[in-house]
Amino acid sequence: MAPVTRSYPVTKQSKDGEEMADYIEMIRSKVGHTPVILNTAAGIVLDGQNRVLLQERNGEDSGWCVPGGYLEYGESFKDAVVREMKEDTGLDVEVIRPLGLFDKYFMQYPNGDQVQNCARLFLVHVVGGSFGEASEKETKRCAYFDFKERPTTFIKQNEDMLDFVATLIATHQL
């Protein structure tokens, strides 16, 4: 017996993120709040003083975080981090190198949805754009912080990412 396959159209995310919301909504309509594994890409931007760029989010997930988000169906991690950096910060970036994989993080959203978030972290370099181009739906503001004086992020995974990058800087590996 041949395996049953279904194909879903691969689309680019619209400016307001509707295709991705529809994709996750389609999955959730089938599995409810059952835990699912979702992949994310996040970007580290450092300024000339080795301060890190963080995003303060709007909405249910309000608080400070490393800019990034979920991969779209058919998208690579590198393409996702470039897209997410533009959406979250308004900045155009190029990927310098991967920094790590942060994959043992379990979250429950306020609506009860459960996920294991597997995130690929990249060092990225700003090549254009401006903070004014960030999505107001997702972003309250962006700012650079010294690693020792940064605000606490609302996701443990982000805290671990930032601690990891701070160690790379302190040991001259970055």
Description:
The protein has helices spanning 18-31, 77-89, 156-170; strands at 36-44, 52-57, 63-65, 68-70, 91-108, 114-129, 139-145. The chain is 24% helix and 36% strand. The strands form two sheets. A four-stranded mixed beta sheet has the order 4-1-6-5, sandwiched between helices. Strands 3-2-7 form a three-stranded antiparallel beta sheet, with no helix packed on it. A hairpin with a 5-residue loop joins strand 5 (91-108) and strand 6 (114-129). It contains three helices and seven strands. The chain is an alpha+beta fold. The chain has a single domain (34-170), classed as Nucleoside Triphosphate Pyrophosphohydrolase, CATH 3.90.79.
Low-confidence stretches: 1-16
CATH class: Alpha Beta
Number of helices: 3
Radius of gyration from the alpha-carbon trace, in angstroms: 17 Å
What is the CA-CA span between the terminal residues?
A: 52 Å
CATH H level, superfamily name = Nucleoside Triphosphate Pyrophosphohydrolase
Helix content: 10-25%
Q: Strand order, biggest sheet?
A: 4-1-6-5
CATH fold topology: Nucleoside Triphosphate Pyrophosphohydrolase
